TrEMBL record:
<dbReference type="Pfam" id="PF01370">
    <property type="entry name" value="Epimerase"/>
</dbReference>
<feature type="domain" description="NAD-dependent epimerase/dehydratase">
    <location>
        <begin position="7"/>
        <end position="228"/>
    </location>
</feature>
<dbReference type="InterPro" id="IPR036291">
    <property type="entry name" value="NAD(P)-bd_dom_sf"/>
</dbReference>
<dbReference type="InterPro" id="IPR013549">
    <property type="entry name" value="DUF1731"/>
</dbReference>
<dbReference type="Pfam" id="PF08338">
    <property type="entry name" value="DUF1731"/>
</dbReference>
<dbReference type="InterPro" id="IPR001509">
    <property type="entry name" value="Epimerase_deHydtase"/>
</dbReference>
<feature type="domain" description="DUF1731">
    <location>
        <begin position="263"/>
        <end position="309"/>
    </location>
</feature>
<dbReference type="InterPro" id="IPR010099">
    <property type="entry name" value="SDR39U1"/>
</dbReference>
<protein>
    <submittedName>
        <fullName>TIGR01777 family protein</fullName>
    </submittedName>
</protein>
<comment type="similarity">
    <text>Belongs to the NAD(P)-dependent epimerase/dehydratase family. SDR39U1 subfamily.</text>
</comment>
Length: 311
């Protein structure tokens, strides 16, 4: 198969989307960015073949742009967490998290029904949060879903994407763990106390963080695009998840700042409410399917991954 494809990318302006956009553009793919604000997207991501205004949960003229594309990568969704500075999980914000993914994906798949030359594949974002919080249990793609808020969102989100199978598309769900990114995301938040030499584990410290380097995150999406054997769920997590206490220790060593000031659960619960579960609990997910299918991780252990990103 030729590597050059016309790819629709929703959520391209986000943390994962920006990296994927760059990686796909570098190899010559023709990218069509679907954004709620296409002019801002054009400025922040120059070089796409087109910028299309879309409202994920509403039908509109954007549907015509699906005609003739080879693939869709669907990343869009309201931010799950922006740490202490972001919106709290109020009932209305939880509904936005859910509907931006579930109703948004439904709208995309419904629009595909009217397309005569349909894309061959839909690669839909999902999360290792699919598994909920199952302690030390090793979670490969056969593990059952959890039953907390995020797990239920992921189950519904994947179900909406799966409806594209009936339209003849290959469907892949990328269940991403914690994407390491120093400029934002969870790692950016975790680094703040270390910068003030007040870093430390988040109690209880034994919760697992299933991290992934952005190079492998983009690599797995490309792998899913290019290999027809890839279908269904794929854990996008490095082969060696770390307990929070070890993650904090390695992060402190890489930053040259000690990991000593433990953060108690109750203080996070007070500041973050229900959202605190994201950091107090965690998943021990393993990328079994990706490895079985032959994906070679560039970063398998945390220290080199952090050294690469944080210098
Ligand atoms: N980053 C991680 O560690 C991680 C881990 C697990 C799963 N994921 C999932 O992977 C996907 C991409 O992650 P990310 O970190 O790149 O996300 P992100 O930085 O929050 O960006 C997501 C994009 O979605 C669009 N968006 C924002 N709010 C929206 C809303 N209310 N309705 C519809 N679209 C909205 C925005 O694009 P426009 O403004 O251009 O429309 C935004 O750039 C997300 O769905 C996320 O849940 C991420």
């Amino acid at each position: 198969m030729s590597n050059t494809q016309r790819i629709i990318l929703t959520g391209a302006t986000g943390l994962i989307g920006r990296k994927l956009f760059a990686a796909l553009r570098e190899r010559g793919d023709e990218l069509v960015v679907f954004s709620r604000n296409p002019e801002a997207a054009r400025k922040s991501l120059p070089g796409a073949a087109d910028y299309v205004a879309w409202q994920p949960n509403k039908t509109g003229s954007w549907a015509a742009a699906l005609e003739g594309a080879d693939a869709i990568i669907n990343l869009a969704g309201a931010p799950i967490s922006q740490g202490v500075i972001g919106p709290r999980w109020t009932p209305s914000y939880k509904e936005e998290i859910r509907s931006s993914r579930v109703i948004g994906t439904r709208g995309l798949v419904q629009a595909l029904a009217d397309v005569s030359k349909r894309p061959k594949v839909l690669i839909n974002a999902s999360s290792a949060g699919f598994y909920g919080y199952q302690g030390e249990r090793i979670l490969d793609e056969t593990a059952p879903a959890g039953n907390d808020f995020l797990a239920r969102v992921c189950v519904d989100w994947e179900r909406e994407a799966a409806a594209a199978e009936a339209l003849g598309l290959r469907v892949v769900y990328i269940r991403t763990g914690l994407v390491l990114d120093a400029s934002g995301g969870a790692l950016g938040q975790m680094m703040l106390p270390f910068r003030m030499r007040a870093g430390g584990p988040i109690m209880p410290g034994t919760q697992y963080y299933s991290w992934i380097h952005p190079t492998d995150e983009a690599g797995l999406f490309r792998f899913a695009l290019d290999h027809e054997a890839v279908t269904g769920p794929i854990n996008a997590t490095a082969p060696n998840p770390e307990m929070n206490r070890d993650f904090s220790k390695i992060l402190g060593e890489v930053l040259g700042s000690p990991s000593w000031l433990a953060v108690p659960e109750f203080s996070l619960r007070l500041t973050l409410g229900e959202m605190a579960d994201l950091v107090i609990k965690g998943q021990r997910a393993l990328p079994k399917r990706a490895q079985e299918l032959g994906y070679q991780f560039r970063f398998t252990t945390l220290r080199p991954a952090l050294q690469d990103l944080l210098g």
